[in-house]
Amino acid sequence: MTAPAVPQRLAAPEPGWTDTVDVVVIGSGIAGLTAALKARELGTVLVVTKDVVASGSTQWAQGGIAAALSPEDSPEEHLQDTLVAGAGLCDPDAVRALVTEGPDAVRDLIELGARFDTQANGEISLTREGGHHRNRIAHSGGDATGAEIERALVAAVKRAPDIRLIEHALVIDLLRAEDGAVAGVTLHVMGEGQLDGIGAIRSRVVILASGGLGQLYAATTNPSVSTGDGMALALRAGAKVRDLEFVQFHPTVLWLGKSAKGQQPLVSEAVRGEGAFLVDHEGKRFMEGQHELADLAPRDIVAKAITRQMLAAGKDHVYLDARHFGDEKWRVRFPTILASCRSHGIDPVRELIPVAPACHYSSGGVWTDLNGQTSVPGLYACGEVACTGVHGANRLASNSLLEGLVFAHRIAAHLAKGLPQLREPAVDTRVPGLVDADVVPELQRVMTVGAGVIRSASGLAEAGAAVAKLIEQPAGEPGTPGWEATNLVTVASALIAAGTVREESRGSHWREDHPDRDDQHWSGNLDLTLLADGERARPGATFVPQSKENRQDG
Fold first, then answer.
1. Sign of the CA dihedral 129, 131, 133, 136?
2. Which of 96, 128, 299, 506 is catalytic?
3. What's residue 553's pLDDT?
4. Would residue 299 show up in a list of annotated catalytic residues for this protein?
């Protein structure tokens, strides 16, 4: 199967204004805002975000942030749990950086003003989630950790007069110098203030922190801004994207009926960490015997078990039972989830919670080294848009906030050695293109069916053929809906290519026609780049075997 060809760059009017800064940060979640706060010591910083500054995925993180903060815990134990969840594909050096630098990074966050829940003695209250063998999840407001972290970071950024912020702006493409290095970005500001319409920002460095690809699927926990923009932009710029086939589906997302689309309410893994358990329609527990941690098994295992249960019973959801918590525990520990359930007519104090898997997190993304550098000089990436090697084939619960935090610190530390020179943008001779904005609902349906929790060669081929037809539909005038649609089909094309090539089941990539993990042939990573194909470009996949010294049994 040949992956669908996509535009080499986005069709857009020529920039009507220009500006110059040292560092452009794309995205305003934990990764982007941390990077901005650290980079401000090195030069002028501009943060560009698609909506208001607090609109990204960070604010929706319920469970918490994982770090070895307890005397009973250790970075080494956190490392081992991460490697096991990553199913043999984690980069041990990246994981070691995460778990050893993580505790201090969390303390730095606290000094910045983030408030975590504490015990009576004043120590941070730590809980457990799937895949963890220790209580190491720091949380805030019970189940509002992301919102508290985002609040603290936004407040710190707004206190910093040397950080500029452009909201309601979609970055279109990278500006590149003759040698391919970063020279800045083009962007579209959606009618806000003096900087209106298409503009160009020249910069020495661009840091991608634009989040994930959740809107590629019909049901997701991601906000509406998660349209794969950073991954698509990086691919068009010639960057290497790694392991895009590993899309994590959160096992317990509130099931709102067959017609529900878009962002769906998450029922945090922390609910199971506190003792809730999954049951089928007969009230029978089905995770016992599936894994040593039962309902707290890594997410890929729980999502697969739920999907099998649904297929076997001919149902479209299962249930989570947390009735034994009682009213007070629900109100104190999970007030956000309690309110969300009740707003949809479900009272978890007295009723079972209907749940089903939904797209949650991309473990793959734009490849970076340990300093957050991508394969394009001057382009850095951190957070969900990046593939640092931390997550492998399946992210361990609550490692995502920590990864964004730690690798934003690492990027700033690397840039402190010296920013690259400001480059002159070269003339872009690639053929521009655009996809019809109206294809998105059908694209989401196609990807959910053919490249969702369960995959096969035939299903991926059908998805690829369907995406190719969607790309051929005549596009309208350039604008945010069309640019987002083009970014989505670009990422879909690459994901389909990767999912087709990897003929095994590992972590969050489940091939029913290759149901077993195959370390002999597939112990390694898949790197994707866009290759010119006439007026368009097509993703090509290269398999990179793991070196023996880095191989993990996971």
1. negative
2. 299
3. 47
4. yes
